């Protein structure tokens, strides 16, 4: 039996409750599939692992092909200009997901799957009254937003079941972008997200160079249902590889239809709100321009036929309609999973239906100016590793697992830092930093360093096995800020650290 698979299964067996050990022990004794190369055919990888069992068919059919649902907006209770006041309630809810009419219990914000769309403008003051009606403590993390540390929904600030709190922050100028919100309580994040807790947060600019285009949000999420149309808990393979569902939903719907007129340019905002799935997105046959990343617009449009989004990442894409129907698809991608099947088929995420021809204005040649960050005052190295022989520390940062009471680094407000993030593990790991956006300077693919081809603001960057990145950032606000793998099961098992930013 392949050594990596044996160590993986043996470590899991020692770490899991007795009820979950039997299947793992069975595989560890050699009753599983033969070794294979999980990154075969991909130009970003090259390690050898074990071929897992084939993917099984979904247990429940979902309705599909309905018009793309709009994200329900969160109501603004304020009548004051520049101020947004809303309420979010996290609670169990029953929704009709199955085609046969059976309902499913999800955990949702305001009963909506996904959560309500929060849409504000640069400079606005945002106040969100949050109520926790879950059976677990939770928080709301404002992913990617430059908010004070005490408002960021960190695990050290949990909201207990039955309790409430107010999140309040003011958005700075030049903060327009596609952000999102989700729970971040240590030990419960993965479950709360796969049960449905996630929502889009859009910060707009009043001087948006693409403001004339139709703006369509596409929040992509994973769903798994058992034969009873219930959301099952994580399996041992989920804890090792990160959970992928049986369906990829777009705005909560399976393979919906977006109508796009021939010649019409549409701005697609795309969120990867899955726990672990890497999405290699394409719109075959369409003219597509990359115009934005996590932190908003890039400097100039770029022709890109594919966009790869790891968990937590966002992108903005301008697509021109055509007279023929088409589809948004996720192309095959192998991320080095150890126990579960890779995605080797092309998944249709949404259909594009044509409509009568319309004329659209040309894209601007320049979208914004992003000044390069100056030379750093501090350089650090972050190493992502897997240790299958140690069930208490299988996923580590710099050899350690997360400790809420420990600051791994001490930084300074306004100080430029440059981090070299190295993935010495056997699978892809998306790296996320709280409190600010960073600029990726260069990437190492195992053969050498290459400069990043364009400048952008990001808060997540994907690192395939054996790869590294150099990134540069400034923290503008003091407080404890986390950095971690955004595969939620890896984060929960300790692949997370903290930097104490001091004024």
From TrEMBL:
Compartments (UniProt record): Cell outer membrane
Span of the signal peptide: 1-22
Tree of life domain: Bacteria
Record bears the keyword ATP-binding: no
Domain Plastocyanin-like: 100-207, 392-502
InterPro entries: Cu-oxidase-like_N, Cu-oxidase_C, Cu-oxidase_fam, Cu_oxidase_Cu_BS, Cupredoxin
Bias (Low complexity): 48-58
Keywords, ordered alphabetically: Metal-binding, Oxidoreductase, Signal
Region of interest: Disordered: 29-58
An MF annotation (GO) of this entry: oxidoreductase activity
Keyword Signal carried by entry: yes
GO cellular component annotations of the record: cell outer membrane
Membrane topology reported for the UniProt record: Lipid-anchor
Stated name of the protein: Copper oxidase
């Amino acid at each position: 039996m392949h050594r990596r698979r044996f160590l993986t299964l043996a470590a899991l067996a020692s770490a899991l409750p007795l009820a979950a050990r039997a299947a793992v022990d069975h595989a560890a004794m050699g009753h599983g599939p033969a070794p294979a190369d999980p990154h075969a055919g991909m130009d970003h990888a090259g390690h050898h692992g074990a071929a897992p069992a084939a993917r099984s068919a979904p247990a429940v059919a979902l309705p599909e092909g309905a018009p793309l649902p709009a994200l329900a907006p969160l109501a603004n209770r304020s009548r004051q200009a520049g101020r947004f006041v809303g309420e979010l309630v996290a609670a169990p809810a029953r929704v009709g997901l199955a085609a046969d009419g059976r309902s499913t219990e999800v955990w949702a914000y305001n009963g909506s799957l996904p959560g309500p769309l929060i849409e504000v403008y640069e400079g606005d003051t945002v106040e969100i009254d949050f109520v926790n009606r879950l059976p677990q403590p939770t928080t709301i993390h404002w992913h990617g937003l430059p908010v004070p540390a005490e408002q960021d929904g960190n695990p050290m600030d949990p909201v207990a079941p039955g309790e409430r709190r107010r999140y309040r922050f003011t958005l700075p100028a030049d903060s327009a972008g596609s952000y999102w919100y989700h729970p971040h309580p240590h030990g419960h994040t993965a479950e709360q997200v796969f049960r449905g807790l996630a929502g889009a947060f859009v910060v707009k600019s009043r001087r948006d160079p693409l403001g004339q285009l139709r703006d369509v949000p596409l929040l992509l999420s994973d769903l798994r249902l058992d034969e009873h149309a219930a959301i099952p808990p994580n399996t041992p393979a989920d804890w090792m590889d990160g959970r992928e569902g049986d369906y990829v939903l777009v705005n909560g719907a399976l393979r919906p239809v977006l109508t796009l007129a021939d010649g019409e340019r549409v701005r697609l905002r795309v969120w990867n709100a899955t726990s672990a799935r890497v999405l290699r997105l394409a719109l075959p046959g369409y003219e597509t321009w990359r115009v934005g990343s996590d932190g908003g617009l890039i400097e100039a449009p770029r022709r890109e036929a594919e966009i790869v989004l790891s968990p937590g990442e966002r992108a903005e894409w301008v697509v021109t309609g055509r007279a023929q129907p088409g589809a948004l698809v996720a192309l095959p991608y192998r991320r080095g999973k150890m126990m579960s099947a890779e995605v080797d088929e092309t998944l249709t995420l949404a259909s594009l239906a044509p409509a009568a021809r319309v004329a659209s204005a040309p894209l601007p040649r320049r979208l914004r100016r992003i000044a390069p960050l100056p030379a750093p005052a501090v350089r650090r190295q972050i190493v992502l590793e897997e240790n299958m022989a140690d069930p208490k520390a299988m996923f580590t940062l710099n050899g350690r697992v997360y400790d809420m009471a420990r600051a791994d680094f001490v930084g300074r407000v306004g100080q430029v830092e440059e981090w070299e993030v190295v993935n010495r593990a056997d699978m892809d790991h998306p790296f996320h930093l709280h409190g600010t956006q960073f600029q990726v300077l260069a990437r190492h693919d195992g053969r050498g360093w290459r400069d990043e081809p364009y400048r952008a603001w990001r808060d997540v960057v994907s690192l395939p096995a054996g790869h590294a990145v150099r990134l540069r950032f400034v923290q503008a606000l003091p407080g404890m800020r986390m950095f971690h793998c955004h595969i939620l099961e890896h984060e929960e098992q300790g692949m997370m650290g903290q930097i104490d930013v001091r004024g």
